[in-house]
Amino acid sequence: MAFSVERTKHMDWTEFSAVAIQTLMFTLTLTFMLVGLFGLLIPIFPGIAVMWLAVLIYAIVQAILGTMTVWDWVLFAIITVLAAFGGVVDNIIIAGWLRKTGTPWSNIIISSVLTLVASFFVTPILALLIAPLILYFLEYRRLQDRQLAFEATKAWLAGFSWTFVALFAIGLVMIGLWLAWVLV
Q1: Which of 25, 36, 53, 119 lies 20 to 30 angstroms, CA to CA, from 73?
Q2: Domains: count for the chain
Q3: Which residues contact 32 (CB under 8 A, 6 or more apart)?
Q4: In a domain, 4, yes or no
Q5: CA 119/CA 85 separation, integer angstroms
Q6: Which domain holds residue 177?
């Protein structure tokens, strides 16, 4: 295949702009998705939401550029469903572990709300410590037994650990689907 000297000397700025935008969008989206994924290590950090917002912005730019296919929209929809599930999975898993110990819904809800309120005033790490402490005190007040209150606290910690595993897995699947969208 012969290349025109004229073609290689002068780059078409429209082509350059499109390639530059695509490269920039790929780099920014992947960067924010990785920040969201590894941000899951920090309690209270909305890693899944950050990842989804990065994909949303990517989809909007691609739609404006006219490059979104039906396949791209299907993958975006699947990523959106995963993100929505990721937004509630922590409550489902932690509540499930707590319910196994007999912790009443009222104590689960009170400790969740108080932890949320506390997270506005303290660091994320401190908020992570506050959640099981609040639960311990609520369960101790209810049961008047330190060992049983501690069992509920251990269940919260187990639920929190499994929540991280679930969210990290959801995040990896989101990245994988986005890469399939971009690279295929």
Answers
A1: 36
A2: 1
A3: 50, 51, 53, 54
A4: no
A5: 22
A6: 15-183
- Angle of CA points 19, 20, 26, to nearest 5°: 90
Residue at 3 is within a domain: no
Q: What is the pTM of this model?
A: 0.80
CA–CA–CA angle 91, 34, 60 (5° rounding): 90
**The tokens of 110 are what?**
């009170």
Pairwise CA distance, residues 81 & 55, whole Å: 13
* 9 assigned to some structural domain: no
Contact 152, 139 (CB under 8 A): yes
Report which of 178, 169, 181, 177 is spatially closest to residue 86, judged by C-alpha positions.
169
pLDDT in tens, 95-149: 999 999 999 999 999 998 888 888 888 887 787 788 899 999 999 999 999 999 9
Residue 106 CA to residue 169 CA, distance in Å, equals 30
Q: Give the chain's residues under pLDDT 70.
A: 1-14, 43
In the numeric block, the tokens 């499930």 are attached to 96
Residue 40: count other Cβ atoms within 10 Å of its Cβ. Answer: 21
